[in-house]
Amino acid sequence: MTKTARSPRASARVIPLRRATTLEMVRLACPDSAQALRISESFGLAILDSDGIRDLHERLIVETADALKDGLSDRAMEIHLQRIVGSYVGSAHGAGQFYSRAVTEARDATAKLANDLRDEDLDGPVGFDSQSQRKREFAADMGLQAHALRMAAEGAVAAYEQVIGEAWKPFERQIEHAGETVTKKAAVAQMAAFE
Questions:
Q1: How many separate domains does the chain show?
Q2: Inside any domain, residue 94
Q3: Which keywords does this chain's UniProt record carry (predicted)?
């Protein structure tokens, strides 16, 4: 009985890459100033000082970098601010995604309300809001939160450029060992000896 020669190469592992979150992704997911104002006016919510939030976070990062400049090298400062700004951008993006889901749920609930044959979506008892109204109000709250975090992220990104001197880009980890590890290669070679 003859055995076919088997290659000691095993198939390489596929490592999925997670796309880094950019400020542009945040801008697509979170309401802008005009939309935040419409949400505030439509739902009777506080009107946010968008420019104030942005400017405060920009100053905060710049002052933090100024306090650390004697203790950090240029490269260390760049890495430190990269991480800080990345966390602001990531937080805003997460809030924007949550806001988008809340709006979808509010739209679905409101569309169901238009169907006269459904009892579960009708207005609640006197003095209580309907389920669709609560979902719309929740989406409005999430919209303002997402907008506030967007402004904080924009301020952090502006501060990064001011301190480092170049535009902020999200950190993307390079894959060093996309294939097999040495241990796996050794195991495959050893197992091949038994064939």
A1: 1
A2: yes
A3: Plasmid
